[in-house]
Amino acid sequence: MDRLIAIRLRYCINTHLEDQGIATPAAIGAATGLPVTEAVRLLPRRQWREGDVEALQAVASRLGLEVPLEGLDPAAGKGREE
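RESULT FIELD:
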């Protein structure tokens, strides 16, 4: 489930930065409060790594984003009659 949370967080953060016109590595680093190299590795990463969710939640918090994470558990709907 952490992988799904990381995907949702990355999408929301990247969309917010794009909407604000923040696109260069230096601007992304400044906006997120991360060193440039860390920001450009964390945000576009396609592979989940340990610690990503916590790092992404911290970035979302710094940006003032509220990222809805409910409904991400794929097992939550199993067992229901259709």
